[in-house]
Prior knowledge:
The structure holds two protein chains of two kinds. By secondary structure, chain A is mostly helical. In chain A, 63% of the residues lie in helices and 6% in strands. In chain A, the strands form two sheets. In chain A, strands 2, 3, 4, 5 and 6 form a five-stranded antiparallel β-sheet that branches. A two-stranded antiparallel ribbon of chain A has the order 1-7. The N and C termini of chain A lie far apart (91 Å). Chain B is elongated. Chain B is 72% helix and 0% strand. Chain B has a single domain (11-94), classed as Helix Hairpins (Orthogonal Bundle). Chain B has helices at 11-30, 34-58, 63-93. Chain B starts with 10 loop residues before the first helix and ends in a 13-residue tail after the last helix. In chain B, 10% of the residues are buried. The interface between A and B is medium-sized, with 13 and 14 residues.
Amino acid sequence: MSIETLLPWVPALPLIGFVTLVFFGRRLGGRWSGIVATVAMGAAFAVAAWLALGSALLRPGWSPPRVMGIDEKHVVPADYLDHPQEAVYHSTLWTWMTVAPQYDLTVVTRPVRAGEPVPADAVTTIRLPQARITHDLELFATSHRMFTPEQAIGRIARLDLLPIGPDAPLNGDRLLAETTLLPDAERAIPAAGLPERPLGYVVDVALQLDALSLLMILIVTGVGFLIHLYSIGYMAHDADRPRYFAYLNLFAFSMLTLVLGANFLVLFVGWELVGACSYLLIGFWHKDPANASAGRKAFIVNRIGDVAFLIAMMLIFTTFGSLAFADVLPQAADPLVLSGGVATLIAALLLVGATGKSAQIPLYVWLPDAMAGPTPVSALIHAATMVTAGIYMMARAHVIFDHAPSVLVAVAVVGAVTAFGAALIALVQSDIKRVLAYSTVSQLGYMFLGVGAGAYASGVFHLMTHAFFKALLFLGAGSLMHAMEHGFHHGKGSGHGAASSSEDHDDDAFPPGPPPALDGIPPEQDLRHMGGLLRKAPVTGWTFVVGGLALAGVFPLAGFWSKDEILHHVIGRAGEGGAIWLALFALGLVTAGLTAFYTGRLLLLALFGAPRSSGAAHAADSPRTMTAPLVVLAALSIVGGLPWLSGPLAEALDPVLRVAGHVATNVAGSAHAAESGPSALTLALIASAVALGGLALAWAMYRPGTPLVDPARLATAMGGAYRTLRGKFYVDELYAWGLVRPFTRIADFLWHRVDDGVVDAAVNAVGRGAVALGQGSRRWQTGYVRTYGLGIVIGAAALAAWLLWLV
Amino acid sequence: MIPLAAVLPPAQPLMLAALLFTIGAAGVLLRRNIIIVLMSVELMLNAVNITLVAVSRAMLQLDGQVFVFFSLTIAAAEVAVGLALVVALHRSLGSSDVDDVSSLRG
């Protein structure tokens, strides 16, 4: 099968799984629902892998035919054309809508004698907007309804508006616009309501496969499949599994639509659908109002970004007359089409959209709360795939960003500050999922930093490695929580007898059952109750260590390579001059140290030392459906970043993410910028030293036994700073005070005064009026036959009198 | 076609009909006993019948007189139904006063 026919199956398979589960989920039961969903994801992954093998995208040195044209007015930069264009496979499913017609203008190009039909060689058909209507076009006529020259000369311009597209009607549905031709034809045409730019455009539901989307679907289906598999074990005791797996499959479908869409609108549909799935899955255990409100928060905060994205799409449409990547992006490379101001506006709006979906300042607040959902959901949606949609979108639209250097700097600043701030918060959290959540925000900031530095491929590379090790860490955390819960129930269920029969006699120190929640954190995910889990749950523990070291950026694990690449490009920008890049590099480096520190703290508190609760003391490793994905992801976290993978990957991504030549002075190209900075080896050594330093500091503070530096004393010594970090910089409180409270007040006002006082009051008044009218008119109904009879007689007499009067 | 003015019916039958109709209408409106009301309705019907016969004769056409036979048969049926209603009403209300039948009163 060809790639074009196979491509729609990638999103279709999870969709089939979703539909199956919606209709037959209850009948299938929880176990079979999980199997159906996992098989659907596995099949999607198989198709994606087949596409990867079958397409020539990753074959080095392959150069497909050029797709871009040149005309004399719009010169596409030669540099852009000299490189082999990306291999793009299009699969158009159906035409969604025709947005606006295109104009066919038939022009009589020279004067013809009166009374004679216009000869064919005097007629030219111009398809607007290429038509340049100038003064020397004296006569307008139409090829369909030919006017005599007397009629046409200086009087009538007739424009046939042809809807385009394969199914466009060519009959009487054709619109006819008529306008009087003024001496100044150039002004006459816009006066007739014609746009100056082409608006004829057909929106297709089309999929597009190139190196970037191929990488994304491999991540989504691959990691998604592993997480589906893991969910079978993790959710084994949940009664609502059919619903859970249906949502999970719907999410996979949405995410694949997002990354495969061939135009901004299909991307946006996927963008909104993943948001909806995120909402559904965060609030999966909706019986707890806190979970439901976390889901609402995610949805509403995302909506702010989505509005900006929507406006950006409208601007793109009015600027380029199209939403398809194949139309927009080559045009955007042309500075004549895309001026700096519009580019900056579009890019800034896209950035706001990306900060919403990818949880960056100022819209990151939803992501930590999103941990209310089941842990595999956090792994799939809120770490590996959905939150990277913003980075994907910016990489996809990078040609626009290339034209807006100031926005690129903003992207980098947002990314670096988010990375730093979130890493600071992660230092002091006790909830294992919250540490990972802030770590995700921080790592997404890293990707933004890479994108902002113009190193799109590095951002996407970090996206991929992060998907591996962060999914691993979340799944590992879920597995640890599972183990802890097992331990709590062990202690509770079999009591003292079972505990004494176990080999750890000192465990009896803990009372059976879960301890009370501290600070509202469930005990099984509280780091203060863990400890020593590496011995109790070895598979989970060791894979967790691998994931943690990859996150910390320890050589030679995946995180090291991708983080190093981003820093490399940032310092390369600094070499070009610009203190801001140096500051951003420093921020990135400090963040790397912080990352290593909080990762070390996480690992030491959870896995090493002595158990600190009955749950940790009696923990047991998770079933194989849960540990197998952990092992696979751990393997990917080890090999996923090695240069033998990153090199060809960057090469394959290069045509998609190439920075157009004429803006290369503004933006660092991926290759040459790095040369101006310190050498790659020096940087790698610095980054490694920072990472190891962070880990060493964590060891000093949280090592088993007596710490070299007591974290509790440090916390008291730096009370203010500690409380601020513990309170997450009080951003939630700030938003609640500055945004939520005014809005609720306005809503209250609208509710009580406007809605109750005006709208509902008006409706009630109408009702009361009708009742009063009825009360008044019921007197007519006396109920006496004679009254009615009298009415009839009087009426008949009046009628008779009238007739007589007429005669 | 004979001009209308030439065939105006004699005044007496029409005056009788008008008188009977008025009496009937007054009876319907003023009497409260439902049987009397029914009888008054019959009076009004017969007043119309007289008019039909008189005009028919004046116009030298039989149509009106034939129509009266229809009218009479219908009236007979109507009386049968009407009396049945009276009986039913009397059974349910225990009264034959039309003013007692006022459950539709607003």
